[in-house]
Each structure stands twice: as C-alpha cells, then as structure tokens.
C-alpha cells in the first residue's frame, strides 16, 4: 500500500526568467480521468489496473483513501493496481478528504458498494464555494437519501435503481457520480444535461469495459444500461490536456518551439483556438504536437470560461499570465468558479496591468514582467505564476509552491529540459 495523503513538503520555486523554450516534453496521464476511475474501482470487488497513471499528490491522496477503505494499492512506473476485493466500510474523515476535492466522486461508488457513505466535505483548492447539491440530487434520483451536517455529508440507500436524471448544470463530478452509480444497477438510466468533458468519455469507456452499455458519452444526454454487477477492467489514461495547455502557455509567454509528445489538437479543444488566436503556430509532426511562438502574444478581445467545449476554467489563470505580456487588451470572464483570480495581486506585483471587477478582469498587456516574491494559492494559479516567472525578467520566487504537486509530475525538471532556469527548493 502506498498511503501518503497530503504529501505537502513546503517547497518554493525559483525562476530566472526570460529564456525561450526549445525541445520536447512527454505529457503525462490525465489526473481528472484517473481519479474517478480509481473511485469506480471500488464497485467491481476485484482488481483494477490503471496504466499511464501520473505520480502526483492527488493520486497518492486518493490511494490513501482507498487504503483507508481496506483496498490494496500498488503503484510502480505509471501502473497503478487497485484490489478492492477486501474493501470494508469506513467513514471518510476530513484528514482524508481535505487534500482532494475529487474525493466527492467517492460518493457514488461507496454508496453503491456499501449502501451508505459518510464523507467529510471535500477539500482541495479553494477556488470557490464548490457546492455538492447536483451530486446529491443525482444520487437521490437513483434511490439514495441524504443529510448534511456542519462537517459531513451522509447518504444511505436500501437499494439503488435506474432513473431519469436532469442536472441543473453539467457538473463534471456530479455526472461522474451518476454514471458510476447507474452503471452498477440493472436497467437503463438516462442522464440529461450531462457534462461533455473528455474525462466523462474516458470514464464511460472504462465503465463499458466493466460491463455497462453506454451511449451518448460526450453529449448532453447519456444512457447507461447496467447489468447489476461490474467486472474488473484495465484503464489507460490519455495525456492530460491541462498539462499540455500549461506547456503551451509557457511557450506562448516566453517564445520558443516545443514538441508535446502524445498530444493531438483534438485533445486541446476549447483552448487551442485561444493560443492560435494569440499568434501561436500549432501543428502535428509525427506523434507530437509542435507549438511555436516567435513574437509577443497578441491579446484576444474577450474570453469567457465555460463548460466543455468552451474555454476551460482550468486554463484561465495561465492565459491570464500570457495576456499580461501580450500586445493589446483582453477581457477575461470567469463563469465557472467565483474565486479564481487569486493570482491577480501577484501578477500585479510583477508589473502586470490588470483590473479586477466581479467575475471579470481587464488585462492591458505590458512589454515585460519583473521577477518578484509571490505565493501559490491553488494548483492552476501556481502554474500561472510559473508561466509569469518564466516570461519575467530577473528572479521570481514562488512560495507555497506545493500546490503544483497535486497535478503535475516533474514540471520544473521538464521546463529545465526545455531551457528554463527553474529550481524546486524545499523551504
Ligand atoms: C472538475 C475538475 C476541475 C475543473 C472543473 C470544471 C476534476 C477532479 N476536477 O471539477 O479541474 O475545474 O471540473 O471543469 O475533474 N456546482 C454546483 N453544485 C454541485 C456541483 C458543482 O453548484 O453539486 C458548480 C460548481 O460550484 C462550479 C460548477 O458547478 O461552479 C462546475 O463544477 P464541476 O463541473 O462540478 O467541477 P468539479 O467536478 O468539482
């Protein structure tokens, strides 16, 4: 077992910016695809094999929770093996959930396996209030009752059943909970206004391997026909599109030419056009996507975040950093999470010209940023500060940089390999 939730070690990142980036980088497996499959493994009472699994803090934290539920986990060289045959019910306490927002996707599988679940409110990045009403509604439609107290969500059922479920918003996590619980029931569940993210499609592909019949994955109406039992299956994680987008943002801000191994333009739907609009040249060369930028980025007039296939909220902070050194003006509107502009004061300290107003920012691009002491506040915000630090003149120190370990493997080493002067230092 590899229980090590909360691998936080208080690190900082030191960057001497202003270098162009050249070379090739391999994009690791998608965090947001792997985490729900890890949760779903609870339902098959057997062995699940996840290949291409990134060794990141969120995956380790989810392993810790599975170990707490008496599952065995073995993680070697990108291959995670989970044995849930001996799983036993336990409540999932705050110490287990506080590092991991995605612990909410355990609700459906734990409820399915044990008929009950008691889960401390999920933690993770503080990028908004992140309520769970849509998850609760979906599982209630499938036959669960629930109650909430100050610290815990409790659900129980005397037996789940297929249903018709309409989500008031296409929440990714709620769609995943509904799909997983529905896949383990006998009969057909129809999910309306489902999320369409690629991670939903990959979860459906996994659940199909486990024995469910699913149509409509990737559309707003998904039909799940379950057989009552799920069998063990193997899952191969596709490259992480947000990690690919992070390297694209770094190249857009610094200039250079980088091959993203294993990535295709279709994987980057939703933000590819933002980078091409800003002047990036993007094309396939063999198995890699080549991204090139040889001038200052050109700011687009307006970008709004939205549910897939719109511009992803997870790329918003990084594009804000790129726009800070772009030519012209950008209005960036955040429509998914209400607290996702935490990098703004730090970017301003670095010399960016940004005005924050409600759910939008107005960015007037400046020629260069200057290195500064800044603080990481969430996962993607820390990636955005790295982007800004790489583009800035002189030295940037990012304190509380541990957030980056939640979602990125070897980010500093890979950027160094591309020519950046960047070091991780334990504080
Ligand atoms: C997932 C991703 C996260 C990404 C987000 C949006 C994982 C592990 N995380 O998060 O990286 O930023 O999708 O693409 O896959 N909402 C409610 N009630 C609910 C659930 C959600 O009001 O019950 C709201 C949220 O507050 C937010 C919006 O719906 O405003 C989107 O949230 P959701 O799609 O559920 O995001 P997550 O699944 O948490």
Notes on the protein architecture:
The chain is an alpha+beta fold. The chain is 29% helix and 26% strand. It is built from 13 helices and 23 strands. Strand 4 (72-76) and strand 5 form a beta hairpin. The site of uridine-diphosphate-N-acetylglucosamine has 22 residues, from helix 1, helix 5 and helix 6. Residues 32, 35, 101-102, 128, 130-135, 169, 171-174, 199, 312-314, 336-337 line the site of uridine-diphosphate-N-acetylglucosamine (UD1).
Output the keywords.
binds uridine-diphosphate-N-acetylglucosamine, 13 helices, 427 residues, four-stranded mixed beta sheet, alpha+beta, single chain
Question: What would you call the shape?
Answer: globular
What is the count of β-strands?
23
Strands across the major sheet, in which order?
Answer: 21-22-1-23
The overall pLDDT average reads 94
Query: What is the end-to-end distance?
Result: 28 Å
Estimate percent helicity: 25-40%
Number of helices: 13
């Amino acid at each position: 077992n590899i229980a090590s939730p909360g691998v936080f070690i208080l690190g900082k990142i030191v960057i001497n910016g202003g270098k162009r980036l050249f070379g090739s980088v391999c994009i690791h497996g998608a965090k947001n695809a792997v985490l729900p499959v890890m949760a779903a493994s609870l339902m098959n009472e057997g062995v699940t094999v996840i290949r291409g699994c990134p060794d990141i803090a969120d995956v380790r934290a989810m392993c810790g929770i599975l170990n707490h539920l008496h599952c065995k986990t073995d993680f070697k060289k990108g291959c995670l093996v989970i044995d849930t045959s001996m799983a036993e019910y336990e409540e999932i306490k705050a110490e287990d959930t506080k590092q991991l927002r995605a612990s909410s996707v355990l609700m459906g599988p734990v409820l399915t396996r044990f008929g009950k679940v008691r889960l401390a409110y999920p933690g993770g990045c503080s990028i908004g209030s992140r309520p769970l009403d849509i998850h609760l509604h979906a599982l209630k439609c499938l036959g669960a009752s629930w109650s909430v107290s100050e610290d815990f969500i409790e659900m129980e059922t005397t037996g789940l059943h297929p249903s018709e479920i309409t989500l008031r918003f296409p929440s990714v996590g709620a769609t995943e909970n509904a799909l997983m619980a529905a896949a383990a029931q006998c009969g057909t569940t129809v999910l309306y206004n489902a999320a369409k993210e690629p991670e939903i499609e990959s979860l459906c592909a996994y659940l199909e391997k486990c024995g469910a019949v699913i149509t409509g994955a990737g559309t707003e109406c998904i039909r799940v026909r379950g057989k009552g039992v799920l069998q063990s299956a193997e899952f191969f994680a596709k490259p992480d599109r947000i990690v690919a987008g992070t390297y694209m943002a770094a190249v857009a801000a610094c200039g250079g030419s980088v091959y993203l191994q294993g990535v295709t333009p279709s994987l980057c739907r939703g933000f590819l056009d933002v980078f091409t609009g800003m002047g990036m040249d993007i094309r396939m060369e063999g198995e890699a996507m080549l991204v090139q930028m040889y001038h200052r980025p050109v700011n687009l007039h307006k970008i709004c975040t939205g549910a897939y296939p719109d511009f992803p909220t997870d790329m918003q902070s990084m594009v804000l950093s790129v726009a800070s050194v772009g030519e012209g003006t950008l209005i960036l509107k955040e429509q998914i999470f209400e607290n996702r502009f935490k990098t703004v004061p730090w970017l301003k300290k670095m010399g960016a010209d940004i005005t924050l107003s409600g759910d939008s920012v107005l960015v007037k691009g400046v020629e260069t940023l200057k290195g500064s002491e800044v603080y990481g506040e969430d996962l993607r915000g820390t990636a955005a500060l790295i982007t800004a630090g790489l583009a800035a003149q002189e030295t940037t120190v990012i304190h509380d940089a541990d957030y980056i370990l939640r979602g990125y493997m070897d980010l500093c080493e890979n950027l160094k390999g591309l020519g950046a002067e960047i070091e991780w230092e334990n504080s």
